[in-house]
Amino acid sequence: INILTKFHKDWMKTINILTKFHQDWMQTVTSTVYTNKLLTDGGTDKRRHAQRTPDITRSHKLTVSLHDR
């Protein structure tokens, strides 16, 4: 029974590491997709670009805060 318990604990550690990796990856991908969407959405109209600039700045702050975890 001790061997099974040790195996289960080791297995749980591996699962936790994989889960953490997946969560970090999802945050990075989501942030990248969101940023790209902000940068490529719309035309070249300067007025629209000026309206998007604060969103790009907020997106950058979101990206930085997600990577600082």
UniProtKB/TrEMBL annotation:
Q: This protein's superkingdom?
A: Eukaryota
Q: Where is this region: Disordered?
A: 42-69
Q: What is this protein called?
A: Uncharacterized protein
